[in-house]
Design a protein that fits this description.
By secondary structure, the chain is α/β, with parallel strands linked by helices. 44% of the residues lie in helices and 12% in strands. It contains 16 helices and eight strands. The protein has helices at 2-20, 37-41, 47-50, 74-78, 83-94, 112-124, 126-129, 147-153, 199-204, 210-215, 241-248, 253-262, 267-271, 278-285, 290-304, 314-331; strands at 27-32, 54-60, 67-71, 105-109, 133-137, 157-160, 219-221, 224-227. Helix 6 packs parallel to helix 15 and helix 12 runs antiparallel to helix 15. The longest helix is centred in the first third of the chain and has 19 residues, at 2-20. The chain is globular. The protein starts with a helix and ends with a helix.
Length: 333
């Protein structure tokens, strides 16, 4: 019964308009190898069973009277990749990432702070909210595992990751023999021969040093852009989104209030040249539950205070501009 209804829907909404209309018809459908048992039980948990395994993602259009389908079976997605990576991909898709198959564009982020802020920005901005743009929280530098799937789906994709400068223990205010511990504020001379510890950065920027990444251009290839904190802010280079946000808004009273609400012990750091202690602040905020609390407090401030003035770091803006540009190109087709 379900299959009959589904096929009837495809006929009425896709096939008949394709044949009878002179106007462009654009839509897409996912076809599974078999109907999941969950659907037969009446469970609402359809999404977790929808996408694996898959036969086709069909992107149907009357452009030149052609339609196209994109194969998405396990073997095509896995290719020659590590089986462990593929198992991770399948499991993560079951936890909600399957919506990317129906998205106009997709953004991958590492941490909770950029996730909650971007969700709000996309919702409030008319340049983006007219599209279905999915934002996925990966809780780590795992976006490269989606590389093949991003290429196959051929929708605009943005990876927002952290450059994660490699620091010695003493540069992270930890004990190390022969060194005085401190929180190292990263300046341009400090970048010499320094690497990134981020797996995603290593994948897309290959074996480049941090200095080479910063002196170069952002990674862009076809429908994908990879952004990170490569721009100098207030004379320093941020290692994470939180530090970039602090440096970008170092004179912003709203952000200062948020930081001190989350950790009252940071009041002195905030009041005395916050830009010179941005790395220390972000390190102390990253402990225990402070990071998620920081994200929630920022979102609360942005929503409830029309005069908050908190700005996104430039590398985020550049990435969003890329998404907007690519979506504009698709609209013109």
């Amino acid at each position: 019964m379900f299959k009959e209804i589904f096929l009837s829907f495809i006929k009425d909404t896709i096939l008949i308009p394709l044949v009878t209309s002179n106007k462009p018809v654009k839509t897409e459908a996912i076809i599974c190898e078999e109907m999941p048992k969950k659907w037969q039980t009446g469970s609402s948990n359809i999404q977790t069973k929808l996408v694996i395994p898959l036969i086709f993602k069909i992107d149907i259009t009357t452009e030149n009277n052609n339609s196209k389908n994109v194969a998405l079976n396990d073997q095509i997605i896995q290719g020659n990749n590590d089986k462990k990576n593929f198992q991770y991909l399948k499991k993560h898709i079951k936890f909600g990432v399957s919506e990317m198959f129906f998205s106009d564009a997709v953004i991958f982020v590492e941490g909770i702070t950029e996730y909650v802020l971007l969700k709000h920005v996309m919702k409030e901005n008319e340049d983006y909210n007219k599209y279905y743009i999915s934002i996925f929280l990966l809780n780590g530098a795992y976006a490269q595992k989606y590389e093949k799937l991003i290429k196959i789906l051929n929708i605009p994709a943005l990876i927002i990751t952290d450059i994660d400068f490699k620091r010695e223990n003493f540069e992270k205010n930890k004990d190390q023999d022969g060194h005085e511990k401190k929180y190292l504020q990263m300046t341009y001379p400090d970048l010499e021969n320094r690497k990134s510890t981020n797996g995603c950065i290593k994948h897309y920027y290959e074996d480049k040093t941090a200095k080479e990444i910063i002196d170069g251009v952002y990674y862009k290839k076809d429908n994908l852009m990879v952004t990170c904190q490569k721009d100098e802010i207030q004379g320093y280079y941020a290692t994470s989104f939180e530090e970039a946000l602090i440096l970008t808004n170092c004179n912003n009273d709203s952000l200062k209030k948020v930081i001190t609400r989350v950790n009252g012990n940071l009041t002195k750091c905030v009041e005395e040249n916050m830009e010179k202690r941005s790395y220390e602040i972000q390190m102390r905020l990253s402990k225990s539950k402070a990071k998620s609390e920081f994200a929630n407090e920022i979102l609360y401030e942005v929503i409830t205070n029309d005069q908050h003035g908190i700005e996104l770091p430039k590398y985020i803006i550049y990435g969003l501009d890329f998404i907007k540009e690519k979506l504009g190109e698709k609209d013109e087709l």
